[in-house]
Amino acid sequence: MKKLIVTMKNKLLLLALSSVSLFSCSIKDETDIYHGSSDMTANLNLDWNTAANKCSKILSTDFLPDNTYFCNEIWWDMAQGGDKQEQFVKGNVSLIAQSQAIDVLIDAYNRTGTNDYLSKAESILASVYAANGQSYMDNASYANSEFMGITLLRLYTASKNDAYLTAAKNIFAVITEAATSKQSGADASEKPVPGAIGVPVSASQPDMRTTLSNATAVIFAEKLFNATNDQSCLDFASHIFSFLEQNLFDGSGQAYESVNMDELGTTIQSQDKTSYSASQGLMIGASLALYNHSSDKDAKAQYLKYANLFAQFQVYGSYSTSRQIIYKQFPVFMPDYVALPGAVDRSLMLYRGIFFRYLKDLIGISDNTETKTYRICLDNNVESIWLYGQENESCLWGTRWYEAPYTGEYVSSTDVSDPYVSKKVVSLEAEVAGATLVEMKAELSKNKN
Question: Where along the chain do its domains lie?
Answer without folding.
Answer: 44-83+322-449
